[in-house]
Amino acid sequence: MASSIFSSKQQRPPTQYRGRFAPSPSGLLHFGSLIAALASYLDAKSNKGLWLVRIEDIDPPREQAGASDEILKTLEAFGLHWDESVLFQSQQSPLYLEVLNYLAEHNLSYYCHCTRAEIKKVGGIYQNHCRYLAHVNKNSATRIINSQKIIRYNDLIQGIVECNPELAQEDFTLVRKDGLFAYQLAVVVDDIYQNISHVIRGCDLLEPTARQLSFFKLLAKRPPLYGHIPLAVTSEGYKLSKQNKAPAIDIKNPQPALHAALTFLGQQPPDELLLMTTEQIITWAIAHWSLANIPKKRQINFFN
Ligand code: GLU
Ligand code: ZN
Fold first, then answer.
1. In this structure, are residues 74 and 91 in contact, taking their beta carbons and an 8 Å threshold?
2. pLDDT at 2 over 60
3. What number is the average pLDDT over the span 226-246?
4. Is 90 exceeded by the pLDDT of residue 1?
5. CATH of the domain at 23
6. How many domains is the chain built from?
7. Could you count the other beta carbons within 10 Å of the beta carbon of residue 238?
8. What Rg, from alpha-carbon coordinates, does the chain have?
9. What pLDDT digit, counting tens, does each position of 270-292 carry?
10. Are 291 and 227 in contact (CB under 8 A)?
11. How far is it, in rounded angstroms, from Cα 146 to Cα 211?
């Protein structure tokens, strides 16, 4: 059960690595999510750290029935065994509400009545229109007062990342108009709650990271270190995703997908690994893991 992040006494000993993989159960794992899971796992284990799994199930309309179970089964079949118990964001509402109350009490958030169409009209980036209008909550979104001005950070894989300043400094959404908690709220609160020290994930989240860093600063919490791996894209340049029907990976035959994922991540796995057990492949991969060998590209065509 969620407890406060403000009163939390847990302070990470500086040497403890705590990584995580945080899939949304909107579909089964595909090759793109496997590389993110594998990279975060290998980085944690090669640093003698813990690797946690968090199911980001805060968006019921986009959820696929049974996907959480399937994702967990797939991770196990691929030899990616997690530490501690799986955290489900759907169980974390009291904590999100506590943070929302804190922000409201400290005048760090406000209600926004703007529609998607209105934001589109001003160029697609929200211009903080409702910041000082003191709206009441009438079917409205809640936005943060994002005054931290973080637009650049040092990424463990990509080096210095410069974000679009307008996007990075937008007053982003904490609660959506439909009343659901927004990704940025849940992800930051849970990275604090789980005391995460390292986040290794896909380059689709490079830009949101600036917002997340601002949010940590606003809450006076130490942020994790971030490393973003290249995205696997289709020949047309689209991200492999559940939406564009990227193939789910074969739970009965993990070796080829693990080998392909290690190749994608620049780890140069020898062909002999294909004849080994899943456990042996993972053991090899932990021993040979090198962040420096991951290509610094933001996307790589998977079907080459
Ligand atoms: N749940 C997000 C996704 O599936 C990932 C969140 C994160 O790693 O911060 O894309
Ligand atoms: Zn507004």
1. no
2. no
3. 77
4. no
5. 3.40.50.620
6. 1
7. 13
8. 20
9. 999 999 999 999 999 999 999 99
10. yes
11. 8
Query: Token digits for 200?
Result: 């290794």
* H or E element that contains 229: strand 225-229
**Which amino acid appears at position 89 of this protein?**
Q
Which residue matches tokens 């021993």?
A: 287
The lowest-confidence range among 2-6, 211-215, 289-293 is 2-6
pLDDT, residue 236, reads: 73
The C-alpha atoms of residue 225 and residue 215 are separated, in whole angstroms, by: 14
Is residue 63 within 6 Å of ligand 1 at its C-beta? Answer: no
Which residue do the tokens 């199911």 mark? 55
Ligand 1 atom having least distance to the Cα of 212: 9
Residues 6+ apart with CB under 8 A from 131: 110, 143, 145, 171
As a whole-number percent, the residues of the chain with pLDDT over 90 amount to: 79
Q: How far apart are CA 40 and CA 200, in angstroms?
A: 5
Query: Quick check: 82 and 36 in contact, CB under 8 A?
Result: no
Ligand 1 test: best mutation among 28, 199, 201, most atoms within 8 Å of CB?
Answer: 201
Give distance in angstroms: CA of 196 to centre of ligand 1. Answer: 14
**Tokens encoding 304:** 């080459």
Residue 5 reports pLDDT greater than 70: yes
Give the range of the structural domain holding residue 36, as residue numbers without chain letter.
2-10+18-301
Cβ-based neighbours of 249, under 8 Å, separated by 6 or more: 29, 30, 31, 34, 74, 78, 257
